[in-house]
Amino acid sequence: MGKQYVCHPRYGDKPTISGNTFSIEQIKQAYWGYRRESFFPESAIKADIERQNYSIYPKKLYVDMERQCTQCNRQFIFFAAEQKYWYETLGFYIDADCVKCIDCRKKEQKIKKMMLDYEELLKKSNKTAKETSRLKNIALELFQLGYIRNKHKIERIA
User: Where would I find the Probable zinc-binding domain in this sequence (predicted)?
Assistant: First the structure.
């Protein structure tokens, strides 16, 4: 049985076969960083270097790469199509790398949103009962996650 990868909601949990035929050497020459990567050659897709943000070396191809999440240590795939979106649509710098699985990235985004909501609700002077309840619930969740360390901050919410 093959390796188990974290399932990405858009791309799945298996390498994407592109139908292109690039040799391993062509892939390694397409970007300097590929020489040290564990990748799936059958997933290679052409890049549009005109749309990339790079200083010296663009990526001429994208390829599904095997990764280990720095947060949960599970294996995941940084998909070629996902890279194309990051670097050509979102404008990420070409050397930006994906080090967390989709699950950990989603959790991180959720926590950042909770922290922003907490700050906004905390600043608001005339909170409704519903807003106060929401603030207390967010504070409690952030406390349980370790982002708020002083329990008295939660108790003072009235």
Answer: 64-112
